[in-house]
Amino acid sequence: MLTDDEYDYLFKLVLIGDSGVGKSNLLSRFTTNEFNLESKSTIGVEFATKNIKHENHVIKAQIWDTSGQERYRAITGAYYRGAVGALLVYDITRQSSFQNATHWLKELRDHADANIVIMFVGNKLDLSDTSRAVSSEEGGALAEQEGFLFMETSALDATNVEKAFATVFSTIYAKQPKSGETQPGQAGGPTPTAGERVQLRPPSVRGQPRGSMDESKEGRKRSAEGSNGSGGGCC
Ligand SMILES: Nc1nc2c(ncn2[C@@H]2O[C@H](COP(=O)(O)OP(=O)(O)OP(=O)(O)O)[C@@H](O)[C@H]2O)c(=O)[nH]1
Ligand SMILES: [Mg+2]
């Protein structure tokens, strides 16, 4: 029987998308079931963790969040390194955030592992009746064209938030080698503990070997955190 401190897999997932689309609130809704209507733009990089049970395994989801603001773009190399999943978030009430998906997609293609599992997420579904600017069909069509998973969510009323994360993690899990893995390691480098400052390398050291999907098999590793945790750091 596993305790809260033990897990079988560590999956690093990154949140990306324009500033204000709701990345931080999706994260807080998923990890602590909290929502903040007046949240401030994220400064630097934050992360939170949550243990998920899937089949007979415990997956430690380590989710990284940064601001969509242009001035934080210099951190990309470290942010994407070792990520096995990404939520590319746009705001269904803001066309520009949807159009900028191509910019974020380029970032993913340039910096992330080629096997990364991507979900295209149209957030603020609660505003669908009053101010929708991007139809579900448009979102779904782009996702299909790019080979992404797709879901519309509301961090405000929690619609599809758990489902979106769970779908990404189960898809990543399904890609893991199920037998004969002999390379225990960590996705995304050392697991930061709650409150720990995350040291990010400048983009100039990009090109070093990245974590692969195979590296996320942890074997029943003991972590320094509980089942849910958060921390953060700034660069
Ligand atoms: N109505 C509604 N508002 C939301 C939802 N999600 C986030 N918001 C609001 O949108 C604003 C921005 O949310 P954040 O989560 O801070 O956005 P972000 O993508 O993290 O922004 P950056 O950190 O600047 O990149 C806040 O006022 C939130 O309360 C949602 O699902 N519905
Ligand atoms: Mg944020």
UniProtKB/TrEMBL annotation:
The molecular function terms in GO held by this entry are: GTP binding; GTPase activity
Its cellular-component GO annotations read: Golgi membrane
Predominant cellular place of this UniProt entry's protein = Golgi
UniProt feature, compositional bias: Basic and acidic residues: 212-224
Keywords of the record, alphabetical order, are: GTP-binding, Lipoprotein, Membrane, Nucleotide-binding, Prenylation
The UniProt family comment states: Belongs to the small GTPase superfamily. Rab family.
Topological relation to the membrane, as annotated: Lipid-anchor
Q: Which InterPro entries match?
A: P-loop_NTPase, Rab_GTPases_membrane_traffic, Small_GTP-bd, Small_GTPase
Biased composition, class Low complexity, residue ranges: 180-196
Q: Which CDD domains match?
A: Rab11_like
Q: Report the Gene3D superfamilies cross-referenced here.
A: P-loop containing nucleotide triphosphate hydrolases
Annotated region Disordered: the residues are 177-235
Q: What is this protein called?
A: Uncharacterized protein
Please name the PROSITE patterns in this protein's record: RAB (PS51419), RAS (PS51421), RHO (PS51420)
User: What GO terms in the biological process aspect are recorded for it?
Assistant: endosomal transport; exocytosis
Localization in the cell: Golgi apparatus membrane
